[in-house]
Amino acid sequence: MPLVNWPPVDDGMSLEVQFFFYLAAVVCFVLAALGSRVRAQVAFVPLGLALFVFPTMWNTGALAF
After folding, report:
1. Angle 36-40-44 (CA atoms, 0-180°, nearest 5)?
2. How many CB atoms sit inside 10 A of residue 60's CB?
3. Run of H or E including 14
4. Is 18 in contact with 57 (CB distance < 8 Å)?
5. Do the Cβ atoms of 63 and 12 come closer than 8 Å?
6. Helix, strand or coil for residue 5?
7. Half-sphere CA count of 40, side-chain side, radius 13 A
8. Is a pLDDT exceeding 90 seen at residue 1?
9. pTM of the complete model
């Protein structure tokens, strides 16, 4: 059975780029969890959330417009 890109993304981000965004988000969450200083921990959580949401936002914008 062939792999299908769903949802169909014409102008959206490729799956490889999405993978690296999600991987970077996971790394940020791990660094936040392992961070010993509160300031570094707080900085990685919003960065991880932004990296996690960005591919979905990009693809939604590409499909909408």
Report:
1. 115
2. 13
3. none
4. no
5. yes
6. coil
7. 9
8. no
9. 0.75
- C-alpha span between 1 and 58 (Å, rounded): 28
Task: Write the DSSP assignment of 27-64 as a string of letters.
Answer: HHHHHHHH-SSHHHHHHHHHHHHHHHHHHHHHHHHHHH
Pair of tokens at residue 26: 């996971």
CA angle 40, 43, 46 (to 5 degrees): 150
Rounded Cα gap, residues 19 and 2, in angstroms: 19
| Structural tokens at position 5 | 């890109």
Write out pLDDT tens, residues 31-43: 888 887 666 667 8
In the chain, the amino acid numbered 6 is W
Per-residue buried b or exposed e for 30-56, using 16+ beta carbons within 10 Å of the residue's own CB: ebbeeeeeeeeeeebeebbeebbebbe
